[in-house]
Design goal:
The structure is a single chain. This protein has 351 residues and is an alpha/beta fold. The protein has one domain: NAD(P)-binding Rossmann-like Domain (Rossmann fold, 3-Layer(aba) Sandwich). It is built from twelve helices and 13 strands. The chain has a seven-stranded parallel sheet, with helices on both faces. Strands 7-10 form a two-stranded parallel ribbon. The protein has a two-stranded parallel ribbon with strand order 8-13. Helix 2 runs parallel beside helix 4 and helix 6 runs parallel beside helix 8. The radius of gyration is 20 Å and the shape is globular. The two termini are 27 Å apart. Bound molecules: nicotinamide-adenine-dinucleotide and thymidine-5'-diphosphate.
């Protein structure tokens, strides 16, 4: 029986990783470490929470002593680290919490893993899940981020993730900690917190509220369906080479305004509205400070060396995502009202 720590498992991507690992690997003991910030929602995991190979631990990764106690309690063989503050706009308003969680929290995890495993690193693995935003911004010139692209983060979020990536490599190079990293493009899919572009727009369109598009909507993002990201994480965790970095992306670039127009037409169709109705909700608003123009990922290393490829076309993934949000109004309602934050108290504290 292997024990795997998954940090940030109550968040958007983390909950998909936990679900896949719990279902696909019944012989793994999957422990979800999450402090449940506003972005952590245990209702993302109600379908697997009862499984015998799943455990939840409420813990703040910035608390070294508490973390050390958990490492000593469970003696994990692997760590898949996703816990983070993840929203660029929030990082502009409060950079310090990004430093605490993303940098300091990552160092705490690295140190706990190093201390526990230092006498024998064989069979151990620390996997850091990171973002393509560490590479900075591209022009509209057809170039891509590769694993060799120089780090040039611009937002406090991407600076904190870049810093944590460097610490992961430093623990590998200095102490021999067995690590692997991935840098992924923008994800979309179910259970995405409705502060990020796609779920925010779906929710606003549904409620006939304006859809804010920053600047002129000319910024380009490379979108990947979350379940394809999770398949890549599974492959990299099990087959990635020690000390290596893999870029993950869907080769799927969209200008924000084109994406929102497509989303509006899907919503019109799904809601039985006249074509063009939802697009009237589009409102151009003041641009994000330091807004990166374009992200685009070259994932050929992952595709050629480890055989991963994305499974869904964007139109198909977007359609599935819209369908999930429309079929799960209660989830959205409980998130927007704050009700979801009471779930932990009910399920765990009073048991
Ligand atoms: P999210 O914001 O949805 O979830 C983050 C999770 O981390 C939440 O459950 C939160 O409660 C938990 N957390 C935050 N601070 C914590 C702390 N101090 N201690 C313990 N838990 C804490 O994030 P996400 O979008 O699922 O992203 C997950 C990871 O993937 C992040 O590391 C992010 O940088 C990376 N990533 C995200 C994207 C994307 O498009 N969302 C793309 C590439 C990489
Ligand atoms: P976001 O989902 O916040 O992801 P990231 O900033 O990590 O790429 O934003 C995606 C793109 O959409 C980004 O270019 C900013 C833009 N955006 C808007 O135009 N309006 C919005 O309300 C939000 C949240 C984002």
């Amino acid at each position: 029986m292997k024990t795997i720590f998954i940090t940030g498992g109550a968040g958007f991507i983390g909950s998909h990783v936990v679900r896949l690992f719990v279902n696909k690997y019944p012989d793994y003991n999957v422990v979800n470490l999450d402090v449940l910030t506003y972005a952590g929602n245990l209702e993302n995991l109600t379908d697997i929470a009862h499984k015998s190979n799943y455990t939840f631990e409420k813990i703040d990764i910035t608390d070294y002593e508490a973390l050390k106690a958990l490492f000593n309690k469970y003696l994990p063989d692997g760590v898949i680290h996703l816990a983070a503050e993840s929203h660029v706009d929030r990082s502009i308003t409060d950079p310090f919490v990004f430093v605490r969680t993303n940098v300091f929290g990552t160092c705490n995890l690295l140190h706990c893993a190093k201390e526990l495993w230092k006498d024998n690193f064989a069979g151990k693995r620390f996997y850091h899940v990171s973002t393509d935003e560490v590479y900075g911004s591209l022009e509209n010139d057809g170039t891509f981020f590769t694993e060799e692209t120089k780090y040039q983060p611009h937002s406090p979020y991407s600076a904190s993730k870049a810093s944590s990536d460097h610490f992961v490599r430093a623990y590998h190079d200095t102490y021999g900690l067995p690590v692997v990293l991935s840098n992924c493009s923008n994800n979309y899919g179910s259970h995405h917190f409705p502060e990020k572009l796609i779920p925010l727009a779906i929710n606003n369109i549904k409620n006939k509220k304006t859809v804010p598009v920053y600047g002129k909507g000319e910024n380009v993002r490379d979108w990947l369906f979350v379940e394809d990201h999770v398949t890549a994480i599974d492959i990299i965790f099990h087959s990635g080479k020690d000390g290596e970095t893999y870029n993950i992306g869907g080769n799927n670039e969209w200008k924000n305004i084109d994406l929102i127009r497509l989303l509006c037409s899907v919503m019109d169709r799904k809601l039985g509205r006249k074509d063009g109705m939802s697009a009237q909700l589009i409102t151009f608003v003041i641009d994000r400070a330091g807004h990166d123009l374009r992200y685009a990922i070259d994932s050929s290393k992952l595709q050629n060396e480890l055989g991963w490829k994305p499974s869904l076309q964007f139109e198909e993934g977007l359609e599935k995502t819209v369908e999930w949000y429309l079929a799960n109004e209660k989830w959205v309602e409980r998130v927007t009202s704050g009700e979801y934050q009471k779930y932990y108290e009910k399920q765990y504290n009073r048991r």
